[in-house]
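Collaborator request, handled under Task 6.
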Amino acid sequence: MNLSPLQKARYEYSPKLPGMLRNGISDICVKEGSETASVADQDKIKALFPNTYGKKEITFEKGSNTSVAKKQVVGVILSGGQAPGGHNVISGLYDALKATDKSNVLLGFKGGPDGLLKDDYVEFDDAFIDAYRNTGGFDIIGSGRTKLETQEQFAIVAENAKKNGLTAIVIIGGDDSNTNAATLAEYMAANNTGVQVIGCPKTIDGDLKNEDIEASFGFDTATKTYSELIGNIERDANSAKKYWHFVKVMGRSASHVALECALETQPNICLIGEEVAAKKMSLAQITNYIADSVEKRGNAGNNFGVAIIPEGIVEFVPEFSALIKEINELLAGSKTDEFNALPDWDAKYNFIKNGLSADAFKVFDILPLGIKQQLFLERDPHGNVQVSLIESEKLFSELVKNELANRKAAGTYKGKFSALHHFFGYEGRCAFPSNFDADYCYSLGYNAFMLIQYGYTGYLSKVSNISKPAEEWVAGGMPITKMMNIERRNGEDKPVIRKALVELDGKPFKYFEANRDKWAVETCFTYPGAIQYYGPAEVCDLTTRTLALEKGTM
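Structure tokens returned to the collaborator:
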């Protein structure tokens, strides 16, 4: 196997653990906090999770280990989309298992939840793990998006767990994957299987966080990767001085990635979906907001710029959001197959016209044909519109182009407008993890084993105080049910982890808001450059601007 010099060097990197975990598992004890409640719909969530609801938050501290010693056979899966650092979660989990007892076993189930259902796994050993330390991707065992939600699925997982002697299962994933973890933990507890279930918080979208989970892993690396690319585009734009670049970045349900990239690169325009929703901004208002920047810059001789667009922006526009909700209900259940079986677009158009309300259809009917069809492409696993497939960067550049033509005819706009389009998504999902993500993920995996060793189930591995040096990080766990509420999914009410949105009164957004008017007119681009793995800690171990602003370290 041919390895790059960087890959060889990263294998040798030793991730930093929280100080309390550095001197051996035998010197760690548990401190229990207060009992917890779900963020909303407490009665409904409690009724659905009677065996795992309301458990106490815990932190690990220095002290005598009082856990019961026993051989552990742990299964682990990677679930959902890739995020930098997943391999290190598995490495940390493996190292903690083996540090406690060399006879402990870690089984990696292939292809995500499907591996648990099909009993398809590999047993890890030192050589296997060493080939993936500190590397990007999920290729160590692959991933998948199968949902674990039926009693039949739970029974199959329980039977396969029994057959393999599993004492615990660790699910590494985002909000949906950890909802799976919560429901599986409840089933295992209700049926006295003896199998614990632990989750680890992953998503580059950054929307799996709260007062306890300060960041989901992968966000740091992905946003640094996108910011490098956006900075490169800004430099090119400032060199050529003839293009407006519309850059769509990942973030369907929240705009954390867009905001972080804006804080890193200071573009002329960055749309924040949560603000669009709060202000009930229409397509026309958003178009005018962007066109104002283009006009002012163009009239000053600067016919170039950069606009960052979160991939889920259209879902935050009230008129679009209402349309998407109706489409999701229209195609719920078997209606999707009925729609897909229609012979041509004319037949599908009539189906849509008859199924939508008059207001929703009015919005639908003014959209360009390409956007109309994108709204009815393949559904996501929940039966919802795949918003990421909607080319919103092209939609807005086309709307801006039309508006500028009107302004030029009116004599107010004297510049030139030429747009280029980009979508940064896959470019960041499997990058070599930053030192921060390498350390954070290794700690999450190591900490997950501590939760297993002390008998917890239905918990999320939690490492906090992460804006400080790793020595000061605090390890512990929180019940997954604390993050849950009831939402409408695929035409039904479902218990799910509540997504964390950009807080408009939070410090990161307030900093952006205070500076964006200047950025919109002047050329204030900053160029973050590539992720640094070696050198001064203030460069290599730097956290995101978002986390630094939230915690007051910037």
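The cover message to the collaborator said: "The first helix runs from residue 5 to 11. Residues 219-429+505-550 form a domain with the Rossmann fold fold (CATH 3.40.50.460). Please let us know whether this matches your experimental observations."
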